[in-house]
Amino acid sequence: MLERNRRMRQKTARRYPFRNPDGSFSWDWAKYQMRWAGRAGQDSFIVTAVGIVIGITAALVSIVTEWLSDLKMGFCSDGWWLNQQFCCWEIDNMEGGRCRAWQPWTHSSPLSWLLYVISAALFSFLAAHLVKSYAKYAAGSGISEIKCILSGFVIKGYLGIWTFVIKALTLPLVIASGLSVGKEGPSVHIAGCVGNIIARCFVSFRRSESKMREIITAASAAGVAVAFGSPIGGVMFSIEEMSHIFTVKTMWRSFFCALVATVTLSFMNPYRTGKLVLFQVRYDRDWHFFEIFFFIIIGVFGGLYGAFVTRFNLQVMAFRRKHLASYPVAEAVILATLTAVFGYFNRFLRIDMNESLAILFKECEGGGDYENLCQTWAQWPMVNSLIIATIFRIGFVIVSYGSKVPAGIFVPSMAIGATFGRMVGIIVKAMYQAYPTSGWFAACQPDVPCITPGTYALLGAAAALGGIMRLTVTVVVIMFELTGALTYILPLMIVLLVTRAVGDLCGANGIADEMIRFNGYPFLEKEEQVYDVPVSTVMRKELTTMNATMRLGDIQHLLDTAAVQGFPVVNSHSKVLRGYIGRTELQFVIGKARRAGNPSPNTLCELASEEHSLEMEHAEHPMITPTPLDGHLGPMSTEEDEAAPEAIDDLSILPNERLNFKPWVNKTPLTVAPQLPLEIVMQLFKRMGPRVILVERYGSIVGLVTIKDVLRYTAEIEHVQSLSNRYDEWSSLDSTLEEAYSWWKDTQQGTLDRLRSLWARVVRRR
Q1: What mean pLDDT do residues 255-276 have?
Q2: In the chain, how many domains are there?
Q3: Name one GO molecular function term (predicted).
């Protein structure tokens, strides 16, 4: 309603002429032009500020992450604040291939392994403890929740300042601990927090939910842009994944915010190499058509990986919710310790995942021979190491993603796909070296390297990312911006199309969408539809309504006893619908009235006029009453409401000491007829974003429907008891987890019983 009044005043101000009737200059016109320019400049300033802060935050997180990751292995004698790359930056510090300034903690392998494990456990403990103590919303990825927020769901504090601070502080600790989680998903959450915090400092944004959604969408695009060094990819991610309704204005703001954030990150240059992310590469070789067969194999792996990890991770989440909800810190420490214990002995699990991607993506001729990765004599041991890294990383991702620490799944999936793809590339290269004259390799030139294993790693990373997130165009754009290789767009498209097809055959959804369902958030998917069902089957028929005229004490009693967020307003002697008012508006008006005076419980409150003529108009109400796209419709224009455009900002007290609630009542709420098909109602929820849709028959209200009612009905027709229990089905992994937990409890109880019996024997002997 505030937004409607602002637009009304803006429309009135446009009518100011350039000159007054007497021919003098109109200062009202000048003031309006200045205000209009100030509003336009304010919007650009906010988007710019959000992009700059996101870029600075991403650079600081990257720098601290690299330092903490290297701190597990040693320290720099020239300065404790330098990581290994910066410590050994100058060529003069190198002697015999070793960096003199970088000192390992110990030269003993067992002690190095022990310090590595202790550091991982310490980092994970600090991160989990901070999240548990100060900001529980800082745990997880955040993409699922931001999707729900953009669709209209309110999660108070999820984008607050404490969530931002704790998530930005703990994210480097989590990555440095070695947990198989990434920082790209949390980067989107951090960016959303930045956009929300900065925008809410301005009244025009704080009072407009539509503007806030635009800023959060733009910030999400900037978060992906700085995570991958891909501004266009960030915009595509917002279009494909985050928002249902994406206007041209929102796309422009998203692109501008992503561009500012990327430029800021490039200016800070966190890696001192000119790269925005550590695994940026450039390819100058072409590919051959016979390689399409191997590209298809990589695509099949990506689809199977996405379906497999999504299914079993949700079962682990169900087990975690059932048994481990009270031990978030202990769980994070145990997972980090196990990851460090087993990962230390594999060359690709021991190092940071971003560094691993940079190594696997490189061409052998471009300095990519990491620990004999490109040597022919070591190719089969390297294949064994890569397949072990792939299997172990998949297991670590399944059990780690969803723990109560900041955790993303983008880079872990890319690391899994890169190890598998590099393994395929090495095998193909070995086949070419063994049979160079085969007709299969006839397109290869004899004196030019034919197979580039690094490109297979790149395609594998794209396949795994597309398989777990169910993205296609976004991944192609991100990978193109990472490599700058236009020639590899066709292989990327082939791989991702195969990945998508395999995922569809397996019936897999993106893990972000599955997390929304698992947590029971009221969110409708774009493709979700229910046919041949009228809305009367789903609507809620037991309603708590308010009369057009009520006493203040009765309104307060309804607020105290009814667990609803809004009330339909009806005539006192009938069910004729007169409007809709929310709980927040009622509490606001009552609180303002009590501050202005001390109204008694018997004070009359008018929510609508008691007029029989209006009832006749409602009897001819159309099937659907249109509303603005943001789902919040202000009152219709009447003489009593438009007499004072600013009346909504002040407490309205009518004669005879009556409180006037009418300016806060939505007089034309979104309504439908009972026989309207449910699929149209679902489209209204998706496209217009209302919290509630009222159902009326011939002007009289007969029910209402919310997104939760629709989701509850869809769960019932799928023969699922509840949204959360749908993942508690017994399967192999779930059974194993339950059996392991039962064995641990039985063992613990048996040990206690033996100790009690031993103590009893000792007491009897005494």
Answers
A1: 85
A2: 3
A3: voltage-gated chloride channel activity
Q: Are the C-beta atoms of 657 and 603 separated by less than 8 Å? A: yes
- How many angstroms separate the Cα of 698 from the Cα of each of 265, 363, 611, 615, 679? 59, 72, 17, 10, 22
Contact 497, 128 (CB under 8 A): no
Q: Which helix (H) or strand (E) holds 653?
A: strand 653-654
Q: Which domain holds residue 196?
A: 46-88+102-268
Domain end (from 219, 234, 268)? 268
577 and 684, same domain (yes or no): yes
Task: Say if CB 393 and CB 412 are below 8 A apart.
Answer: yes
Within 324-452, where are the H helices?
A: 328-343, 347-350, 353-361, 379-400, 410-434
CA 377 to chain centre: 45
Which pLDDT does position 624 carry in this prediction?
39
Per the structure block, which two tokens stand in for 635? Answer: 């009152």
504 & 545 share domain: no
Which of 68-72, 112-116, 693-697 has maximum average pLDDT? 693-697
Tell me the CB-side half-sphere exposure of residue 339, using CA atoms within 13 A. 34
Cα radius of gyration (the chain): 31
Residue 439 has a pLDDT of 80
**CA separation for the pair 457, 427 (Å, rounded):** 12
| pLDDT tens-digit map of 544-598 | 889 888 888 899 989 988 888 889 999 877 788 999 998 888 888 888 888 877 7
Q: For residue 539, give the CATH number of its domain.
A: 3.10.580.10
CATH number at residue 437: 1.10.3080.10
- Residues β-bridged to residue 694: 671, 704
DSSP 324: S
In this structure, are 145 and 237 located in the same domain? yes
Task: Give φ, ψ of 74 to 5 degrees.
Answer: 180, -165
**Contact present, 463 and 417 (Cβ < 8 Å):** yes
pLDDT attached to residue 66: 86
Same domain, yes or no, for 70 and 142? yes
Which range has the top average pLDDT, 131-135, 270-274, 377-381, 529-533?
131-135
Is residue 492 in some structural domain?
Answer: yes
| Residue position matching structure tokens 């790693």 | 457
| φ, ψ of residue 746 in degrees (nearest 5) | -65, -40
Are residues 185 and 309 located together in one domain of the fold?
no
Alpha-carbon distance of 419 to 357, in angstroms, equals 8
Q: What is the mean pLDDT of residues 89-95?
A: 49
CB-CB contact of 272 with 86 (8 Å): yes
The phi-psi region of residue 484 (left if phi > 0; otherwise alpha if psi is between -120 and 50; otherwise beta) is: left
Both 346 and 416 in one domain: the answer is: yes
Q: How many helices (H) and strands (E) does the chain have?
A: 28, 14
Q: DSSP labels for 10-23?
A: HHHHTT--SB-TTS
549-551 and 98-99 beta bridge pairing: unpaired
Distance, CA of 753 to CA of 750 (rounded, Å): 5
pLDDT for the residue numbered 650: 47
Does residue 282 lie within any of the structural domains?
Answer: no
Q: From residue 379, how far is each of 339, 405, 416, 423, 433 by CA, in Å?
A: 26, 37, 19, 9, 12
Whether residue 701 sits in one domain with residue 679: yes
**Residue 734: what residue type?**
D
Strands (E) across 541-631 are located at: 546-547, 549-551, 566-570, 577-582, 604-606
Q: Is the pLDDT of residue 646 over 50?
A: no
Percent above pLDDT 70 for the chain: 80
Domain assignment of residue 759, yes or no: no
Q: Which two tokens stand for residue 734?
A: 């779930």
Domain contains 153: yes
Q: Report CA torsion sign: 233, 526, 4, 545.
A: negative
The residue type found at 601 is P
Res. 380: pLDDT tops 90? no
Q: Give me the sign of the Cα torsion angle 681, 538, 144, 582.
A: positive
Q: How far apart are the first and last CA of the chain?
A: 82
Which of 517, 539, 555 is at the close of a domain? 517
Strand 604-606 to strand 653-654: parallel, antiparallel, or no bridges (unpaired)? unpaired
